[in-house]
Sequence to fold (173 residues):
Amino acid sequence: MYELFSTFKKIKSILFLSLILALSLFSAYYLRESIIIGALLIYFAIAVSISSDIGGYVFGKVFKWKKLTKISPNKTISGVFGSYFCSFICLVVFNELSHPVLVSDLTEIPEVLLTIIFSTIAQAGDLVISYLKRLEKIKDTGKILPGHGGIFDRIDGLMFVVILASFLHYLNI
Fold:
């Protein structure tokens, strides 16, 4: 909240981001209450969001393909592919690490689709925050993590993914 109020000035941006942040925290709390599946789902959501972010950054820097959008000039199409690639690697690793806990194999079709959806939502969340930053004419959302764009830049996609994960868990999907 410190970064939110010290960086953003437009009331609509502050209200929207406060709502998303609060919903994501409540969603994480809700998922935590379900001992096995909810906990695994939140760990998986975090792992896919981080993998997607890292994959997008690395592939975007290494392959330097076409720009994705004017909203965020550093986002590239190769970064999108990298986000998905690293998310799938995350799925395989997560499947191996959680195999004794789960009865089903996480590399089945529903889990692959979930990985695609989580990675897409993480990338979209990143673009939403980038769009709000462009409206405010700011580059970084804070000074707590210098060189990383602030804490909000680390959790921008994750906030949206955790909300979706809790909603899917609530619907028993």
The mean pLDDT is 84. Residues 109-136 form the longest helix (28 residues). Residues 37-166 form one domain. The radius of gyration is 16 Å.
